[in-house]
TrEMBL record:
Name of the protein this chain belongs to: TIGR03086 family metal-binding protein
SUPFAM superfamilies registered for this protein in UniProt: DinB/YfiT-like putative metalloenzymes
Organism superkingdom: Bacteria
InterPro entries the record matches: CHP03086 (IPR017520), DinB/YfiT-like (IPR034660), Maleyloyr_isom (IPR017517), MDMPI_metal-binding (IPR024344)
Residue ranges occupied by any Mycothiol-dependent maleylpyruvate isomerase metal-binding domain in the UniProt entry: 8-132
Organism of origin: Glycomyces tritici
Cited Pfam families: MDMPI_N (PF11716)
Amino acid sequence: MTTTWPLLAEAHDALLNAVRGVGDDQWQLPTPCDQWTVTQVLQHAAGDQLAYASALTGGEGPAENPFAPSGAPVADPAGYASAATGAAAEAWAAVAADAEAVPVPVPPNSLDAVTGVGACALDAAVHAWDIAKATGQAQPLSEEAASAILIAAKQIVEPLRAWGAYAPALEPQDGDDAVAALLRYLGRDPEWKA
């Protein structure tokens, strides 16, 4: 069985494209993730994708704690991100779309397949936005993806706020599109500047 997950593929592409767009002199720039550089956001995002793969397969997880990224230079950033997103995509490809209980690395540690893949996509997509925003790239998320990710976010983010994984939600603004609505829900200012 191979299950296709277009939302996850789009989120992974957004992350990979954002990483490929980082200039050699931009890896230490600040990001919307308070206190983290572009390198640390990359390490966190890759670690989280490996954590999803590990939860699904029982295989090895990330080498370092995704919530305490070292910031040490990554020799091949695109390869590093591609290996992590590839592992997650391969693991999700083995999950039936109608599975009711799939292991995930975030509370409650088991979700239905659609919500679980949305949570994995959320992580890749929001960090793609963080990296793109920090390095002056175009906003990488589609309206359709943001809308679908927001559905998953509303099912998993609240318990994670208590651990500091997400900042408090920001108030919606008139004229917000789906991407801005998602970002504000996740505690990010769509107009963030370094």
